[in-house]
Design goal:
Length: 337
């Protein structure tokens, strides 16, 4: 349920409504607009009664939010969420590009790739320190040492960093190094981890589960939002289908659909989705054309020597050419790179 205040309603009337909401046993989530305020009412939908609020001073009307995801919905929050990060606005006119290797492997690797992607125009450095792998015998990442190398390379290139956190146990450690916390596909419905990410207040890159629906992705975001953290990016990274020529099927329908349903920025991961380095560029262009607010791309100085996901990582010169192509494409859809 949302309570829409009258235009120019004074703060004392807004505060009185919020106190009434809390007295009724619900949580409040106010959105202070330029002209009017909207108060979200969070709690058990079966017991919510609009009556106590409709006749209060300053209230224009009370509406029910029909979506199961309340805080993530456009009904609740009609304007796009824009996340400020190091002078860049994620969800604004600029398409943000996050780039770097699948896994942090060495200081030399990270230093080389950080400077290369920065020079090409990337705005965030990515790299995995903890790697969830299908096989327990595959490279699992460098852990805390990897986080240190990632942060060191990011600082040297003046780039914020994004990396995956796998468990609530690791959250304090990863938070110490990461500017953006990534929740991977296998953890999209790890509700304890989502809650912990919400409590950090850090920006969160929430990847869609490989077998999850769009509604389930938005309900996962709801867990983070419910903790008071609205700095969430939804990431489409491909879903499992019967097709075997690509690693997953990149669901580009999800980009405009998510932007219709939700106010949160949408990022696309063409590397994980396709599993093929030569499909990364065309799918990146398609993602921007479909309305994506950002891309996350795997870049490695020597992909053939990569310790994980060698087939989907592109070389720095290929990434630089892709960035040039995107600068030509973006203005056609009202965006910049």
């Amino acid at each position: 349920m949302i309570i829409i205040m009258k235009m120019g309603a004074p703060r004392e009337e807004i505060d009185a409504v919020m106190r009434k909401v809390e007295d009724e046993g619900y949580k409040t989530h106010p959105i202070f607009g330029v002209e009017r305020t909207v108060i979200g009412v969070i709690g058990d939908d079966r017991e919510k009664r609009p009556g106590p609020f409709e006749r209060m001073p300053g209230v224009e009307r009370v509406e029910r939010v029909l979506r199961p995801f309340k805080l993530a919905s456009r009904e609740f929050h009609p304007h796009d969420t824009v996340i400020q990060l190091n002078g860049h606005a994620i969800g604004g006119e600029q398409v943000i590009v996050m780039a770097g290797p699948c896994a942090v492997e060495s200081r030399d690797q990270m230093t080389e790739v950080a400077h290369a992607v920065k020079e090409a125009g990337a705005t965030v450095l990515r790299g995995g320190a903890f790697k969830p792998r299908t096989s327990p015998y595959s490279f699992q990442g460098l852990g805390e040492y990897g986080l240190k190398l990632l942060k060191e390379a990011g600082q040297a290139a003046s780039l914020p960093v994004v990396t995956e956190v796998l468990s609530t146990r690791d959250m304090p450690l990863v938070r110490e190094y990461a500017d953006i916390l990534q929740i991977g596909t296998r953890n999209m419905q790890n509700f304890a981890l989502l809650t912990a990410a919400g409590q950090t207040g850090r920006p969160v890159l929430l990847k869609r589960g490989m077998s999850n629906t769009i509604e389930e992705l938005l309900m996962a975001a709801e867990y983070i939002l419910a903790e008071g953290n609205g700095r969430i990016m939804l990431c489409e990274r491909g879903i499992r289908t019967f097709e075997k020529y690509t690693r997953f099927t990149l669901d580009l329908n999800a980009v405009p659909l998510l932007k219709q349903l939700s106010h949160l920025p949408v990022v696309v991961d063409p590397s994980q989705a396709t599993g093929k380095w030569d499909l990364v560029a065309p799918m990146s262009k398609a993602a921007v054309a479909s309305g994506a607010d950002g891309l996350i791309i795997e870049v490695h100085p020597n992909p053939s020597d990569a310790l994980s996901d060698a087939n989907q990582q592109i070389k720095p010169d290929t990434f630089a050419q892709l960035m040039q192509d995107l600068r030509v494409l973006a203005p056609a859809v009202g965006r910049t790179i």
